[in-house]
Structure to design on (752 residues):
């Protein structure tokens, strides 16, 4: 049982040569983390970062206590909603490695998961450089004589080595860092009392500030990145003992604890210093605390821990992405060491971070050299949060039975989270928001072309089915004749796979790109081999852009099998509007005549293809459409009698052949020719046929004129009445081309 459970999950890696992965994963169970170490600690350390120490006083100075609390609450409404959405979906699915990537991919597919998570991974990798620069600035404020480049590179390599050795070592280091940050906060709040060496509260809180350095939205935009670390723990999902329990508990605990800390600090700042002091001094928190050096140590610990958390989470995200062949050379990055560490992914993450550090140093301004792309990185974080909210919103809206989370939230929660994330994106930087969206759409288009093989089902099929059902219900109340929505949806009854393959190319010309082909594979009792390979052939047609399906029918009576098929399809919503059949030497005249009548009763048009055995479809360029008795006084309604289907099909085939159309008619007397020509011109105008459409009127009888008609690669004309196979064969011989004989269903309109 255990082996089967893992085999389903890791088949892509097994294909990459990871034959021993099951045993490796078994051995990792003892080294997995719980809620506190695996989720709460990395999340709280990422949220309680440099902005808390160095920028929150500035926020309070500008916005006042009331404005700062409003900013904190609005920001936390977004993160709390997102955290609740993550918690809900995490209790509905088995969250695999990759955290957000796993959640999004299992819900919306690998293409969406990959397109969102790849830039999110790069943003995480580059963010290591920002945290290292922030750490170095704090270090140099204490030891100004130390060479900056040595401090930067040393701190990076120390963080990298800790993360590279093992997640266990990094988590243990984070416990120590958490203790330092907690001690620094104690020192800060002890500064409220002169008894402990602090200055004590010397100011009355100012409810609303002057907003000297920017309006409310600008201050909010600068503060908001402080609360965007909520996925730090989620990214560790592959290393958790129980992700379903740990992710909700750890994430929400970190969000709520950090919110309380930020609100308490806002009050502390408003009472400890004047607004002018808060706006002009970054180190007020150090100067007014009880033990300043501990706070400075807290600043260093917060920035270093953020770098360490990114070095832990980003490689695990990359490894999970590579696990499903989303990236080129995925098999390399998907490897795990014997101890379960993503060492290859760690190396590439370290390389990206180091390149970002070198870029920052080369710019001459340290982290300021990276500030240009910092907003874009924030956008990728917010896009990821938006999609996570959208996942829950979609799942709840669909109401599928498969969505039954153990932790359910009101539908308003993901809606608020989604709107809030989008609001924050365009508030912080509209230009970079659009760039981020374009990048993700581009990646999605690329991954769709890759045709990724997902090991799980996702909610997309349910989404489209629900949409189709909603559409069907809405459409059922509309008028039955929807001429403007017409497109070729054809039913093709066949006796063998070869019969289908022989018309493969012409079927594409008839239906591409928006039409569909339904194959009714009718085979005699016990002769299923007649249609062997049909499913693969139909799948190939679908992959070429023509939606196709096959339905096998076992019966010894071909005509009766087709009639049953027509009767059944008559009641379905997406039903065919045309019956396509091939006339050959074995065709039975009475059978086809009856089939035409059955199709007419079912409201389906008829397309009979009589193919020239040698010429086939020639150069696939010119199409002759034969019109009987054109009249310049056509009634301008939604119908042109019995030529609508012929005109619509000619236009459709001409688009795929990139060819031309000839409208042809025959009159008995010369004095009728001018009127007929005027009638054809009127048809060209009314039906909006493309420029280059030619008209020809012959003065002759039909049988003789067929031999001297303009040469074409396909002739389209009406089904002869009474029906005659001899006449059809005579037309093919006389025109020396393949011919398509059509009869309207009465539901088409070339004028619509």
């Amino acid at each position: 049982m255990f082996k089967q459970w893992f085999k389903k999950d890791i088949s892509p890696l097994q294909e990459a040569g990871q034959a021993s992965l099951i045993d490796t994963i078994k051995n990792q169970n003892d080294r997995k983390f719980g809620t506190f170490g695996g989720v709460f600690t990395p999340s709280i350390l990422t949220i309680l970062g440099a902005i808390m120490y160095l920028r929150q006083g500035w926020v309070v100075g500008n916005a006042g206590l009331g404005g700062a609390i409003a900013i904190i609450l609005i920001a936390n409404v977004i993160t709390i909603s997102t955290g609740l959405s993550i918690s809900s979906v995490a209790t509905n699915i088995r969250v695999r490695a990759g955290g957000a990537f796993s959640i999004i991919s299992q819900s919306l597919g690998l293409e969406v998961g990959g397109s969102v998570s790849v830039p999110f991974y790069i943003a995480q990798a580059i963010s290591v450089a920002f945290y290292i620069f922030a750490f170095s600035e704090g270090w140099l404020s204490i030891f100004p004589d130390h060479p900056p480049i040595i401090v930067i590179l040393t701190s990076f390599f120390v963080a990298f080595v800790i993360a590279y050795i093992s997640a266990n070592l990094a988590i243990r280091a984070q416990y120590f860092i958490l203790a330092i940050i907690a001690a620094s906060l104690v020192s800060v709040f002890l500064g409220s009392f002169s008894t402990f060496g602090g200055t004590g509260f010397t100011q009355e809180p100012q409810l609303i500030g002057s907003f000297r350095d920017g309006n409310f939205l600008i201050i909010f935009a600068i503060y908001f990145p402080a609360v965007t670390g909520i996925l730090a723990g989620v990214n560790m999902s592959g290393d958790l003992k129980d992700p379903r329990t740990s992710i909700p508990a750890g994430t929400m605990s970190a969000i709520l604890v950090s919110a309380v800390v930020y609100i308490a600090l806002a009050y502390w700042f408003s009472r400890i210093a004047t607004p002018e002091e808060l706006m002009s001094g970054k180190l007020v928190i150090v100067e007014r605390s009880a033990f300043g050096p501990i706070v400075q140590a807290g600043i260093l610990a917060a920035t270093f821990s953020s770098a360490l958390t990114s070095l832990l989470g980003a490689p695990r995200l990359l490894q999970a992405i590579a696990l499903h062949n989303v990236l080129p050379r995925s098999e390399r990055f998907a490897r795990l060491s014997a101890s379960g560490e993503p060492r290859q992914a760690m190396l590439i993450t370290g390389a990206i971070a180091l390149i970002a550090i070198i870029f920052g140093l080369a710019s001459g301004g340290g982290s300021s050299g990276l500030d240009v792309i910092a907003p874009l990185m924030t956008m990728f974080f917010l896009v990821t949060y938006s999609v996570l909210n959208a996942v829950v919103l979609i799942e709840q809206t669909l109401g599928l039975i498969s969505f039954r989370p153990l932790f359910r939230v009101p539908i308003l929660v993901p809606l608020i989270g989604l709107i809030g994330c989008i609001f924050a994106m365009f508030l912080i930087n509209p230009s970079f928001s659009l760039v981020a969206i374009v990048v993700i759409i581009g990646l999605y288009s690329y991954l769709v072309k890759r045709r990724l093989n997902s090991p799980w089902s996702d909610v997309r099929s349910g989404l489209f089915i629900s949409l189709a059902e909603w559409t069907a219900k809405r459409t059922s109340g509309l008028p039955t004749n929807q001429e403007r929505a017409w497109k070729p949806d054809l039913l093709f009854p066949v006796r063998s796979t070869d019969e289908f393959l022989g018309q493969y190319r012409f079927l594409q010309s008839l239906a591409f790109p928006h039409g569909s082909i339904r194959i009714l594979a009718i085979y005699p009792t016990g002769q299923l081999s007649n249609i062997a390979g049909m499913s693969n052939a139909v799948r190939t047609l679908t992959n070429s852009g023509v939606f196709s399906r096959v339905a096998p029918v076992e019966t010894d009576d071909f005509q009766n099998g087709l009639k049953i098929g027509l009767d059944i399809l008559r009641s379905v919503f997406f039903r065919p509007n045309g019956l396509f059949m091939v006339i050959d030497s074995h065709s039975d005249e009475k059978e086809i005549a009856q089939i035409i009548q059955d199709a007419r009763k079912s409201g389906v048009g008829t397309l009979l293809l009589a193919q020239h055995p040698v010429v086939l479809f020639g150069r696939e360029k010119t199409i002759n459409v034969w019109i009987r008795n054109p009249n310049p006084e056509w009634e301008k309604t939604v119908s042109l009698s019995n030529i609508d289907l012929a005109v619509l099909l000619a236009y459709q085939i001409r688009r795929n052949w990139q060819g031309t159309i000839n409208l042809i008619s025959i009159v008995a007397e010369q004095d009728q020719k001018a009127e007929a020509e005027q009638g054809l011109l009127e048809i060209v105008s009314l039906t909006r046929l493309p420029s280059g459409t030619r008209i020809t009127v012959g003065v002759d009888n039909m049988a003789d004129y067929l031999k001297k008609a303009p040469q074409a690669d396909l002739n389209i004309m009406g089904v002869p009445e009474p029906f005659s196979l001899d006449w059809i064969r005579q037309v093919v011989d006389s025109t020396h081309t393949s011919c398509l004989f059509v009869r309207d269903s009465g539901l088409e309109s070339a004028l619509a």
User: Anything to note?
Assistant: The beta strands are 489-494, 516-523, 547-554, 578-583, 605-610, 622-626, 660-667, 694-699, 714-718, 738-743. DSSP finds 29 helices and ten strands in the chain. The longest strand covers residues 516-523.
